[in-house]
Give the backbone structure.
Amino acid sequence: MRDSYPRGSQKSKGEFEVLGGRELALRLPLVEVWEELPAEVERLTGEVGLQILGAILEDEVRQRVGPPYRPDPASGSVRWGRQPGYVVFGGQKIPLTRPRVRSRPGEEVELENYRRLQQDGRMQRAVAERIVCGLSTRKYRRAVESVLDG
């Protein structure tokens, strides 16, 4: 038996319904929504940023090897799975799963973009800024670890 779903003209028009001669009005907690908005925007931009970084790495693999399941024999390289790794994004080390590429003889091929994404200068600037702002050099190791941990 087929279910009946609203079609075309039967779809909701998004207007208020009049119940018993009175309009139904909804009150939204606008202040609470506004307070939560920056955190959600930050979370979404972080997710989009990670997707962009993943696309950058995948594009380099595609250029070196060819499309998935159809490697270019002339490239001399093959896809070799994925492994856990990290990139520096927004001044923090962010874990991600990175693609691997090997040469036909079996040697690991370094992905240039992956290496560059691990060397963001913001972490080094953050450590230097903390030292300049009064952190003693005796506590340098702890400062570096706090920056690396986020």
Remarks:
- The radius of gyration is 26 Å.
- The mean pLDDT is 78.
